[in-house]
Amino acid sequence: MSLDVPTALLERAESGEITDAEFVECVRTSLPYAWEVVSRVAGELQTGTAEFADNEVAPPDETARGQLLRALASDAIRGGLERHFGVKLAFQNCHRVAAFPLAAVGGDTYSRFISPRNQLLNQSPELRNC
Q1: How do residues 14-26 score in pLDDT, each as one tens digit?
Q2: Of 42, 55, 49, which is closest to residue 91 (Cα–Cα)?
Q3: Whole-prediction pTM value?
Q4: How far is residue 69's CA from residue 120's CA, in Å, rounded to a whole number?
């Protein structure tokens, strides 16, 4: 299961729409490691001067790795995080998450980061099974 959905939130979802804030709060409490990584890179992007901010530290354990994979593999979760933090997320391997300004999408740096070439160059034997 990807998210731990409180009964009240599930009932509201069954009867109609929920807000982005409700959804993002569910993500934050359900996937705390993924939340920490995404919030950190989004914060670094907003406070720094680099073209993007990324995480290159592998998750501490399989539970954390699973949270990150679930968060970034789900269009709804990833989209909710992107809207909440006002960034575009890019993902490589089992842990390399980058936050880009929305205006960077389609630009050279973003396009290089998400390219097949860069994906191949970002591989290593240690990450083979991540």
Answers
A1: 999 999 999 999 9
A2: 55
A3: 0.88
A4: 19
